[in-house]
Amino acid sequence: MTGSVFVGRPGFVASDVGPAAHFGNPLGEQRALAQGGAVVELGLGVVTVTGPDRLSWLNSITSQLLLGLAPGVGTETLVLDQSGRVEHAARVVDDGTTTWLLTEASDAAPLADWLSSMRFMLRVEVADRSADFVTIGAFADAAPVDGTVVEWVDPWSSVTPGGWGYASLEAHPGSDWTLRIAVLESTAAVALAASDQPAAGLLGYQALRIAAWRPALTDTDERTIPHELDWLRSAVHLSKGCYRGQETVAKVHNLGHPPRRVVMLHLDGSDAVLPEPGTPVSLDGAPVGTLVASAVHHELGPIGLAVVKRSLDPTAVLTLSADDVVVTAAQETIVPPGAGATANVPRLPRLGAVRRN
Predict the structure, then answer these.
(1) Of 66, 78, 310, 350, which one's alpha carbon is 20 to 30 angstroms from that of 55?
(2) What per-residue confidence (pLDDT) applies to 121?
């Protein structure tokens, strides 16, 4: 569905991708969203795959283990090129007859086209159904959305089976990430928008995503490999069979280091300017990376995610320019400089999620 079903809500301000950026109170909406008191229209693309070979086929061409995926269980997978660089990313849930792939709206048609080109003689059918459905996100104890066709539950709160987390914190901020995405037909979405259900905009969702260190396809460029964004945590199974790009995934993880790494930035908000994604990140006047996401968090203030070169000193204070203002930024390490080369590194079992204060 194009546009936004919430366009008639008081205070509606559209985002660049269609759904609301906010409804007049971005921080209040964000707080309500985090506490389960509001929903957010995400504007995602929807690609469906049907046919008896759908899971085994997707398993053979993407990064996640999808064989035997139980109905209703949420996971995610990546399409990589021959060099292991990210081309597509999809949130995956199967309902027993259809596999639903939720991706960024701009990537739905390219993903569907690529999947269709890979069908060969297998019993699968691929369709871009983005015009038929609306994606609604909710957190915490938010009530189920009426009219939900299928729901995807984000696995980001822990390292998934076969995955690997590079972040060294025991108290990973993603431990509290409870995102659920409901896929609704247009009529049900219009009814939701016409109800008294509180809604938040994408600005609030983006701030919560950054604070949870949650990667997205919008954080990538033509060089991104999954390791750089700590995406092995939820989107890659390191022990599954061969797929395009697997050699790079295994080689970097076992023997090498990702050439770049993602960090969280705590941005100085003194001048009330927020650098936009794509802004160069500098140290002593020399570029060391790029800002890939930014937002104002209701507790943390201005924050961002940046992809920087691996050798960057994690304690260095960085600078970015916004509206002719120089903004300083302190780093919080997500992927450490020594990430990778794990072939001979013992891995202790995860002791469970610890809430970060």
Answers:
(1) 350
(2) 80
The encoded tokens of residue 87 equal 């081309």
Neighbours of 132 (CB within 10 A): 15
Pairing of strands 75-80, 180-185: unpaired
Q: Which residues pair with 22 in a beta bridge?
A: 13
- Phi and psi for 139 in degrees, rounded to 5? -130, 170
Alpha-carbon gap, residue 195 to 267, rounded angstroms: 37
The CA distances from residue 341 to 11, 242, 261, in Å, are: 51, 20, 14
Categorize the per-residue pLDDT at 241 as very low, low, confident or very high, splitting at 50, 70 and 90. confident
Q: What is the pLDDT of residues 106-165, one digit of tens each?
A: 999 999 999 999 998 889 999 999 999 999 999 998 999 999 999 999 999 999 999 999
Locate tokens 């204070």: which residue? 317
CA distances from 111 to 80, 219, 222 (A): 12, 17, 16
d(CA 256, CA 260): 12
Helix ranges (DSSP H) in the chain: 26-34, 54-61, 105-117, 186-194, 202-211, 246-254
Residue 108: left if φ>0, alpha if ψ -120 to 50, beta else—which one? alpha
pLDDT of residue 170: 76
Across residues 200-223, what is the average pLDDT? 98
State phi, psi for 183 to the nearest 5 degrees.
-100, 120
Q: Are 23 and 11 in contact (CB under 8 A)?
A: yes
